[in-house]
Amino acid sequence: MNTTYDFTGRTALVTGAASGIGRATALAFARAGAHVALFDRSQDGLRETANLIDADSGTCLTLHCDVTREQDVQTAVDQTVDRFGRLDAAFNNSGGRSTCLTRQGWSG
Predict the structure, then answer these.
(1) How many helices (H) and strands (E) does the chain have?
(2) d(CA 85, CA 83)
(3) Which contacts of 71-79 are long-range, i.e. CB under 8 A and separated by 24 or more positions?
(4) Is there a contact between 60 and 33 (Cβ–Cβ < 8 Å)?
């Protein structure tokens, strides 16, 4: 089945966007017309993903973000909305362990 999606005018964020599945997903969102916020701890990998999106005439924002830190995530989401005016989709691809999994403070 060959399905084409249109995300024109929408914004997606992708965690773990510096490589692998995260990079592939970020590229797919960009090719579908989305503005893409790239979250990762690897600044070099983020630059590589951004260069691929830019080369394909896409629009992206790179954000150094450790998803195990709530403040990092909140700041990155705020910057995404400030830049693109909205957030429509999130692809949570990062792995990691945190002692605080929710805002309510559940322990892991």
Answers:
(1) 3, 4
(2) 6
(3) 73/39, 76/13, 76/37, 76/39, 77/13, 79/37
(4) no
Please give the chain's pLDDT, 108 residues, in tens. Answer: 456 889 999 999 999 999 999 999 999 999 999 999 999 999 999 999 999 999 999 999 999 999 989 999 999 999 999 999 999 999 999 876 655 455 555 444
Task: Indicate the DSSP class of residue 69.
Answer: S
Query: How far is CA 85 from its chain centroid?
Result: 15
Amino acid making up residue 7: F
The model's pTM: 0.86
pLDDT of amino acid 3? 62
Sign of the dihedral through C-alpha 97, 30, 7, 20: negative
- Which CA distances in Å does 105 have to 67, 86, 96? 15, 27, 16
Lay out the sheet containing 35-40: strands in order across.
59-64, 35-40, 11-15, 89-91
